[in-house]
Specification:
There is one protein chain. The chain has helices at about 1-45, 70-85, 135-145, 175-185, 200-220, 285-290; strands spanning about 50, 55, 60, 70, 85-90, 105-115, 150-155, 185-190, 225-230, 240-245, 250, 255-260, 265, 275-280. By secondary structure, the chain is of the alpha/beta class. Strands 2, 5, 6, 7, 8, 9, 12 and 14 form an 8-stranded parallel β-sheet that branches. Strand 6 (about 105-115), helix 3 (about 135-145) and strand 7 form a beta-alpha-beta unit. The longest helix is centred in the N-terminal third of the chain and has 44 residues, at about 1-45.
Length: about 300
């Protein structure tokens, strides 16, 4: 009888220990889940959207083509974005969580590669060409003051095509870059010579990136923090995006791809500042990502 009672007590104590241990494990699990949920909620609650578009333009000219948007279609792009509650920001605004973004709006970044004169051109009489990208942006802002002049221009400097070197019109390059800065737009790098970074050794990568950074900064008076890799080609070592070449220190904090779709917000597990997604502004992409059809 005594042995039976002893066994019964031992069994009850063992059950109590096991039950207490299971409760302890459950408490830890709940705490960790709550912490994870809290962190996720904090990241998401910073924005009313989870992804946003970074649009990629090249030429603004006729005819419409793979790398060319007509002035008429670019105007219609701005109108469509405006009506659909998008709000223009510079790429660098990502770093500060889109300052000034109105409630209920989704940011959109207008980016322009290769710095052709079709993006920014002055006419012979000194007036801004109304059919260049900057002229269209300014006219749209004048018509809609609540749509600020924001866009990011990825600029090349020393190619063998004079029309692509800082918007052509060599004698006006400093005036143009300072004007972009004055209007609130962003001057950014597309390397110095439109270099295929996947083919360059680390020393040359640092050379072209630092040289572009320094010249654009000197001409515009703006700190250069954004880069688009030509043709979407990346160096084998992405550490070259920040550092020093000889006496020049540079730091590209945001680097754009040539494609990729909608861009995740900062804080998202998929956010990578060296791999910013973009959407090319051709009709199939408008339909795919915005359900907008050609008319």
């Amino acid at each position: 009888m005594k042995k039976f009672l002893f066994a019964l007590v031992f069994f009850a104590v063992a059950l109590l220990i096991v039950f207490s241990f299971l409760r302890y494990i459950q408490a830890i699990s709940v705490t960790e889940t709550t912490a994870t949920t809290s962190t996720t909620t904090t990241l998401v609650s910073r924005f009313s959207f989870k992804r946003f578009p970074v649009l990629e333009y090249h030429l603004v000219s006729c005819p419409e083509a793979r790398w060319s948007r007509t002035p008429e279609n670019f105007r219609s792009d701005l109108e469509w974005l405006y009506v659909n509650n998008y709000y223009p920001v510079n790429l660098r605004d990502i770093l500060d969580d889109f300052p000034g973004l109105p409630q209920g709006k989704t940011p959109v970044v207008l980016t322009f590669d290769d710095s052709s004169s079709s993006q920014f051109r002055y006419l012979a009489d000194g007036t801004l060409d109304p059919d260049c990208a900057v002229g269209i942006i300014k006219a749209f802002h004048d018509q809609h003051p609540d749509w600020p002049m924001r866009a990011t221009f990825f600029i090349v400097i020393g190619t063998n095509n004079p029309d692509r070197n800082i918007f052509g019109q060599k004698e006006l390059r400093e005036k143009k870059l300072k004007q972009l800065t004055g209007w609130g737009m962003e001057v950014a790098s597309h390397t110095y010579w439109h270099d295929r970074l996947n083919k360059c050794d680390e020393k040359f990568c640092r050379y072209t990136l630092s040289k572009s950074y320094q010249e654009l900064k000197d001409l515009s008076g703006q700190e250069i923090v954004s880069l688009a890799t030509p043709m979407g080609l990346y160096p084998s070592n992405e550490a070259v995006f920040s550092g020093q070449y000889q006496s020049i220190k540079y730091d590209y904090k945001l680097v754009c791809e040539v494609a990729g779709g909608l861009q995740p917000v900062p804080g998202s597990p998929r956010f990578n500042p060296y791999h910013i997604n973009r959407i090319q502004t051709i009709w199939p992409e408008w339909e795919k990502f915005f359900n907008r059809r050609e008319y």
